[in-house]
Write a structure and sequence with these properties.
By secondary structure, the protein is of the alpha/beta class. It has 3 domains: 96 residues, NAD(P)-binding Rossmann-like Domain (Rossmann fold, 3-Layer(aba) Sandwich), CATH 3.40.50; 213 residues, 2-Layer Sandwich (Dihydrodipicolinate Reductase, domain 2); 66 residues, no CATH class. The chain contains 14 helices and 15 strands. The chain has a 9-stranded mixed beta sheet with strand order 14-13-12-11-7-10-9-8-15. The chain has a 6-stranded parallel beta sheet with strand order 3-2-1-4-5-6, with helices on both faces. A hairpin with a 7-residue loop joins strand 13 and strand 14. Helix 1 crosses helix 13, helix 4 packs parallel to helix 5 and helix 9 packs across helix 14. The longest helix has 17 residues. 45% of the residues are buried.
Length: 422
């Protein structure tokens, strides 16, 4: 138990780590950032200055940090997906507890080894499944636990990824290639984790899945398009994927789009346009990138207790949203996270009626991920301090089932087979 502010080191100073670290600025009595490890000197300086980190506690790599005696109670590990395993292993062995960004790792054997290492060294590791902390999903869990719709029989969830999010992350961005991550692991690990959470630890036993890269292929490029949005494209002015429209006019996804010119920030509009016109990867036409991850996928899961669940990933939708429909033995629960609305329906066999309907409104305004980001880091601190924790509290072991579903679904899609989960 820690009865002082929990000390943390930031490992990988990307926007997710920085977002969690803000908790220390708002609650200095509960958490203090005392070290940073990142290969980019600009980020070490920016984040280091923000948190008044001494120069000797600014490291160029996680290896440097792991090679010395622990300088903090825990690390916030926000490294890129492909570095999660490589960075987490030595840091756990070095003595740190950890808040680890999802996914745990990119391969099943690495996930299992990290879990075993956390257990061996008695480390507290929590995965950043922030949707467990979003008020909308907390309410879903509370309703299910209360028996509002009886015993769960089947579940369906869907993630609708907007056209601009799809373009920035999974066509132009760092998650565009299967060698980085199957898209289910990169984008839907939250959703698959929620399925496991709703079923309170019941293991998944078999999975099938179908999907493909259907839309964003060179042969589907509209007439008049070019390799880059601002270099000869005749349809740029009306294209919904225009880099100018998405990243300058709308001001979306700046943390991604302007990373290549981060050293110039705050950049002028002309500098941004020149970057998109020349070598910025986010200035490429969405039909002329080197992406190979699927742009739609459906997953069907059977759990050990006979419950079935399905999840659909719909990419390039006009409206981003996450929806759910859960069927129980006494009713059903339907909801839309972005709308902040849940509907409970129950049979009502009376004259002039068929069912009753109860609407539950949830305030979804707040910080990132439906209000989950701040609640997650606050809960992590509470766990380390030995305080009361929340309904959403999860250890790394609890995140295994969702990851196993993602790995199995990817194999099922590629092999056109039903995959058993051992």
């Amino acid at each position: 138990m820690i009865d002082r502010p929990v000390t943390v080191a930031i490992v990988g100073a990307g926007h997710r780590s920085v977002a969690y670290a803000r908790y220390a600025l708002d609650h200095p009595d509960r958490m203090k950032v005392v070290a940073i490890a990142d290969p980019w000197e600009l980020r070490r300086r920016t984040v280091g200055d923000q948190h008044a980190i001494p120069e000797e506690m600014r490291f160029a790599s996680y290896e440097e940090l792991a090679a010395r005696p622990p300088v903090a109670d825990a690390v916030i590990n926000g490294t890129m997906d492909q570095l999660h395993y490589a960075s987490a292993m030595p840091l756990l062995k070095a003595g740190y507890h950890m808040l680890l960004e999802k996914p745990i790792a990119q391969r099943e054997e690495e996930v299992r080894e990290l879990i075993a290492t956390a257990q061996k060294y008695n480390r507290t590791v929590m995965i950043c499944h922030v949707l467990r902390y979003a008020p909308f999903y907390v309410k879903v869990k509370e309703l299910l636990q209360s028996g509002a719709i009886g015993e769960i029989i089947s579940l369906h969830t869907a993630e609708n990824v907007s056209y601009h999010h799809m373009a920035v992350a999974y066509i132009r961005g760092r998650w565009r290639r299967r060698e980085s991550n199957p898209i289910l692991l990169a984008k839907c690990s939250h959703d698959l984790d929620l399925l496991a959470w709703y079923l309170s630890g019941v293991p998944a036993v078999r999975v099938s899945s179908f999907g493909s890269l259907k839309q964003f292929r060179p042969e589907n490029a509209p007439p008049g398009s070019a390799k880059r949005c601002l270099d000869g494209c005749q349809i740029e002015a009306t294209c919904p994927y225009s880099a100018r429209a998405n990243y300058i006019t709308q001001g979306l996804w700046g943390a991604y789009a302007w990373e290549p010119i981060e050293h110039l920030m705050p950049a002028t509009e002309e500098q941004k346009l020149e970057s998109l016109r020349t070598d910025n990867p986010f200035g490429r036409c969405v039909w002329h990138c080197d992406n190979d991850v699927v742009d739609h996928q459906s997953v069907l899961v059977e759990f050990a207790n006979g419950v079935t669940a399905s999840h659909d990933l719909f990419c390039a939708t006009a409206r981003p949203s996450r929806t759910l429909h859960i069927i129980g033995s006494k009713g059903e629960l339907e909801g839309d996270m972005e709308a902040g609305r849940l509907i409970i329906r129950r049979p009502n066999p009376v004259r002039g009626g068929e069912y009753t309907e109860e609407v539950v409104e949830i305030n979804v305004k707040g910080d990132g991920h439906g209000g989950g980001d701040t609640r997650l880091i606050a809960d992590f601190v509470s766990v380390l301090r030995g305080e009361s924790t929340s309904l959403s509290t999860t250890r790394i072991e609890d995140s295994l089932t969702g990851h196993l579903i993602a790995f199995a679904a990817d194999r099922a899609m590629l092999t056109h087979q039903v995959v058993e989960i051992a």
